Amino acid sequence: MNGLVVKGLSKSFDTVQVLKEISFTLLPGEIHALVGANGAGKSTLINVLSGLFTAYEGTIEIDGTPITLHNPAAAHLAGIRTLHQEFDVSLFPSLSAAENLLLQTRIGMGTPWVFPPRGVTPRLKQQLEIIEGGTIPLDERVSNLRLADRQKLAIAIALDERARFLIFDEPTASISPDQADHLLTVLKQLRARGMGILYVSHHLNEVFRIANRISVLRDGRLVDEFSVSEEERQSAWLRDRTIRAMLNKEVMDLYPARRRKPAAAAPLVTIRNLTTPTGVTNVNLEIYPGEVVALTGLVGAGKTELVRALFALDPVTSGEISWEGKTIVRHTPRTMIRRGTGFVPEDRHHQGLHLNHSVLENLSLPFLQGVRGFAGGVSRARERALGETLKQAVGLVAPSLAIEARGLSGGNQQKVVFAKWLQIATKLLILDEPTKGVDVGARSGIYRLIRDMAERGVSVLMATSELDEAIGNADRIMVMHRGRIVYETSEDIGSDALMSYATGGKGGMLRG
């Protein structure tokens, strides 16, 4: 049979079996999506096919011929290319884009470290044309390239003459929606050229747009596989079947039940005519106790800038912020925390966690005063008790609180960030892209945390680019476009209508 065929693949680490008799086929000229919750086995399967994990059971064939992937070079010779989520690690930042192409593809070079004076060869130009990389400044150092151009470069490098199968691991995790749309167009073009593409993503909307087939992993097993026709791409049936297979439960369980804010409640926070040097313009907003407010819109619409200004991380040019009816005079992150405000940033790896520290240290860091012993140092017993309490409160899944935070899944890392603010955010919790890089199963737990806090009377302001997330969680939705709030509603609304407002349509500013 033509294509990449996996039969009865199993992989264990010590006594733990991570993959259990996986069988599937990746055909030339198709996009085959692989989905599953964190811990389902997706990364392990990718690493086996990339030659990184070598001790496996089962067989792997290409066009009916068995192959052994005993190292990455063997996978490369077999025509398998993998573009990992952190694609930058495959590039040399101090070299130019052209030098990266020449060095890594070994085409057109005189000697390994001497490049021909004419630079990029016709073959390499063709690789760039395939992925529409003609706008990449080839003489520019990679470290100076835009993120989207660096990704295009990594793809172009993979498209040498031996490449037949491309594996994409979360390729849109760190790029904007516009850049993601362009990437999906490129993948369709590669499919039309006969390339077999294994597409791994948490973003189901992307999967439904481009996949010919979908395979679902759960607990190390392939539990479902089905083809996708053009007519089914937007169907509720497709989404329901996929999520049901991933989570072993119905889609309706993803979002907790909402409640409307009490009509008589006075606002906790009032923002009037707020303008910032970062692009927010004349914004007016009220946030009520126990209410979940979603700020949504495209990347760059001003959502992140607004929530950062509210938490006093970015300066304010003009306007007024009031807290419980009184104008805030001294506005700093410290005073916001003292008022009972927590802030979960978009970039949890660099702004929300100390990845090289233990989970327990991350959890207890904001509460060091509360875990001190009689001699003034940290009481390990109190620290452990606090850590266990927070672990239970957020449903954190970790083999031990002593492991480094980097060893947790994306969903559990985010729960650690939430847990840090649980005892601080007694009045207001500000969230910036709270489920970025988190799978569907972990999202469900995070959504319940948000709703639980609201039920306790905490106000929640959530900035999210995912329209379905805003619709499913918010009591009230505010749409931003070019730094302004252009639409507000507490009524049911569809994602198509929200997208129209987010792109500047629907006739301007409305409050409904």
TrEMBL record:
<protein>
    <submittedName>
        <fullName>Sugar ABC transporter ATP-binding protein</fullName>
    </submittedName>
</protein>
<dbReference type="Pfam" id="PF00005">
    <property type="entry name" value="ABC_tran"/>
</dbReference>
<dbReference type="GO" id="GO:0005524">
    <property type="term" value="F:ATP binding"/>
</dbReference>
<dbReference type="InterPro" id="IPR050107">
    <property type="entry name" value="ABC_carbohydrate_import_ATPase"/>
</dbReference>
<keyword id="KW-0067">ATP-binding</keyword>
<dbReference type="InterPro" id="IPR003593">
    <property type="entry name" value="AAA+_ATPase"/>
</dbReference>
<dbReference type="InterPro" id="IPR027417">
    <property type="entry name" value="P-loop_NTPase"/>
</dbReference>
<dbReference type="InterPro" id="IPR003439">
    <property type="entry name" value="ABC_transporter-like_ATP-bd"/>
</dbReference>
<keyword id="KW-0547">Nucleotide-binding</keyword>
<dbReference type="GO" id="GO:0016887">
    <property type="term" value="F:ATP hydrolysis activity"/>
</dbReference>
<dbReference type="InterPro" id="IPR017871">
    <property type="entry name" value="ABC_transporter-like_CS"/>
</dbReference>
<keyword id="KW-0677">Repeat</keyword>
<keyword id="KW-0813">Transport</keyword>
